[in-house]
Design brief:
This protein is α/β, with parallel strands linked by helices. It has a single domain (2-271), classed as Collagenase (Catalytic Domain), CATH 3.40.390.10. 24% of the residues lie in helices and 15% in strands. The chain has an eight-stranded mixed β-sheet. Strand 7 and strand 8 (144-149) form a beta hairpin. The protein binds zinc ion (ZN). Zinc ion binds at residues 44, 52-54, 166, 170, 176.
């Protein structure tokens, strides 16, 4: 299954010492679906990147081959501060306001701070509007990083507020909920319903590389896939094994556990800096 991924790598950029990125070209099928989203479709699952919407560095990607990828301290933004620049020419004023509101929402819930790009700091997130679907680099990796948000009407596709927040949480250093090491205790993956060739999107990370930061598995995480992610037949690919009232794949708001984990990752509790 990895062979296919390697073949599909079309762009790998590296300049000024910034890490090279594994960027995949989106498939025509996904591009067509992104132009005609159906109820329940999540644009970030149709964006053609690893697990749908994560742009990995070469190092992060190769770590996966060793079943070994995740969130070392080096992937956290120094001093809880994320610098950003928005490619405003691609977005309407309303879309820019949604991007800013997503950042403010994370700020209000944590000690993470978003600041406009600082010429003295080479590391920042560039918010692009010219890609297919929505995607993000994962954690602080240095240089110019990306969040890609295909412009949609507000509250649709990549411009659902929850989807924008989802991408920013990737940029802080989080991967998808259902990839965590103990997920098989909480969900069943229905492999026969998964599109052939996309099984890699359901890999697990090892316990010493990913952390749930002391919280239980969270069906209601804004970082969880929908129950029909990568389905070939509209049947479920992820089925909860425990009773839950939460909706997998919700993009309404961060869950309490999402907020807790961001605060733990960035040591906000120790700093007493939450507001
Ligand atoms: Zn994602």
């Amino acid at each position: 299954m990895f062979t296919l991924l390697i073949i599909l790598v079309v762009v790998s950029t590296s300049c000024n010492g910034a890490p090279s990125l594994r960027i995949f070209e989106n498939s025509p099928e996904n591009v067509a679906r992104l132009q005609n989203l159906q109820p329940g479709d999540l644009a970030e699952e149709l964006s053609g990147q690893f697990e749908g919407d994560m742009i990995l560095t070469d190092e992060q990607y190769l770590e996966l081959f060793r079943r070994n990828g995740m969130i070392a301290n080096k992937y956290r933004w120094p001093e809880n501060t994320v610098y950003y620049e928005i490619e405003e020419e691609y977005f309407t004023e309303g879309q820019i306001n949604y991007i800013l509101t997503a950042m403010r929402t994370i700020e209000r819930a944590s000690c993470v701070r978003f600041r406009p790009r600082d010429p003295n700091n080479p590391d920042y997130i560039r918010v692009h509007g010219d890609g297919s679907g929505c995607s993000a680099t994962v954690g602080h990796i240095g240089g110019s990083q990306s969040i890609k948000l295909q412009p949609y009407e507000l509250d649709q596709g990549c411009f659902r507020m929850g989807s924008i927040i989802h991408e920013f949480i990737h940029a802080l250093g989080f991967r998808h909920m259902q990839s965590t090491y103990n997920r098989d205790e909480y969900v069943q993956i229905e492999w026969e319903n998964i599109q052939p060739g996309t099984e890699h999107n359901f890999l697990l990370y090892e316990a010493d590389k990913v952390s749930n930061f002391g919280t239980e598995y969270d069906y209601g995480s804004i970082m969880h896939y929908s129950s029909t992610a990568f389905s070939i037949n509209k049947q479920k690919t992820i089925v909860p094994l425990k009773p839950t009232k939460e909706t997998m794949g919700q993009r309404v708001a961060m869950s309490e556990k999402d907020i807790f984990k961001i605060n733990r990752m960035y040591n906000c509790f120790l700093k007493g800096a939450t507001t």
